[in-house]
């Protein structure tokens, strides 16, 4: 019994629903407003009564065995079918219907179909893409559905819009794909014969002559010799003219088609008009004909007129004996040799020389070895020397020289490549710094200390004086940066002056800057390292040259050195103080400068490393962090854990250093390197222990005094130079080098 239709008795269909939107029933198609509501769902996306919604996707493909969508699984996979359709041809006498062959492509990624008809020559009908790529609906009454994979098979008909296509065959990929999907593929069928196409083939065969013209195949010559040109340098002996002069020419022989082109070389100020070509590119005959042939007179074959009738027309046959053929000889590559003559339409051109490619070509093909050029003109007169006037003192020497070299002077060019290679880059200054003192009898000037800087980018020198208390001399800039001339040169001369270079500066050497002599006493660590790394540019820092000098010492000096080493090392440890060997080598006059002795000591010296307490290093590090209020230890711990992908609680030294640099840890670099070396176990570090050691919030260390911090930074290995006065020299290694 049905309930009465009263409030509360009828079910509410809106209970539990969340979507109440209405579909858009009006839309624009090609700029025209149209009603499209018949295909749209009702309120909330529910289907209306009796409404059939077109499926958005095909029944196939669904990625079997994989979760990828079809447009990824079947990307670039296309099924290809051979098909044809019959087209009626009305109002034509020669044909009533036409068979048109085409290709049907089914794209698996989105079930789209494309129909393409191959283009035939002189077909007279538009061909190519008949149906562009899109989803094609099924014929009525199933127009709401689309063609899918299972609608295709061989030897069946398909109606695509108004045309009926018959599928005749498919490729191997399509057959295998359909077979794997359970589709029984039919046997291929034949395409019916097109009457009009058969008629066209018969007409084409009847139009071909029984005795066709001889075919001259030049494709091989084109493929073998394309872009290959022989070049000859020649001249035209125009001695019979009024002016009696030689005309220089360049002959180009193109191997691709045996043609010749000639260009004239017109020297400057010759009084002749410059023409584009002396001879355009063409085949050059050996013998000039008495009369130039008209177009059409020269043919490869001749024909004979066997019948001339007003009713039956003309009849011709090929002349098999070639009685009317005109034979002409043209220049070939075998006719062109150095010293030979070429008849260029009555002009006598003599070949004098050729380029390297032409020589190689004639040597490989004809075996010619002699390519002696023909001397046809006098050698050019030597250019007169242009003496340079002496320097007059105005401006720089380079700038004055440019005024003498050209009418419109240009500023002197700088060595830009050297500037780019040796200019400052980051922390690499490319500046050599030396400590020097003035060589003078004045006791006040003798105590002054100078810093001489040499800039490698432009070979300039600057001098700075260190200020000293109670010296009576103001410090500061002593010499402005600039290039300095070497002493002992004439001022007013024609040649350019010589300037100081980087090789002229070394420890122990003397430098004369503007009539003031300086003694170079020492250099900084960067200068020593740069000169040792570029030993090929600095001979006094080249260890090979230093060892060769020691080997070339006389025997008595070598024996004296061995005796000194034996007495200085009674325990036979192999090490002696560096100062001892330094005094010996400088006192024996071994032709070694002080810089070379220092380089020898830096190479073979060893120093005792002072052991630093780890607790003191951690206390100093915490003191630096506390002063800078660094509290990002939890973030560093998370960074260490994220970097530790294998969860071993260990990281390499390089990774920990990188994270510390990323967080801008306010600790000196020397102290950080010392801590990493103390915590390192091989190449790995326990980052929990390292972080706990520097965490001044959770594990505070006892306070340190400023003296302890200063001593620790000074004693750090990274802050020390490579060579100190208290270092030991491994003289046993030096003796082994000398014996090799």
UniProtKB/TrEMBL annotation:
The keyword Cell membrane does not apply. GO terms for biological process: regulation of neuron projection development. Residues 75-182, 226-366, 428-535 form the DM10 domain. Keywords: Cell projection, Cytoplasm, Cytoskeleton, Repeat. InterPro entries: DM10_dom, EF-hand-dom_pair, EFHC1/EFHC2/EFHB. It is found in: Cytoplasm, Cytoskeleton, Cilium axoneme. Microtubule inner protein (MIP) part of the dynein-decorated doublet microtubules (DMTs) in cilia axoneme, which is required for motile cilia beating. This is EF-hand domain-containing family member C2. The lineage of its organism: Eukaryota, Metazoa, Chordata, Craniata, Vertebrata.
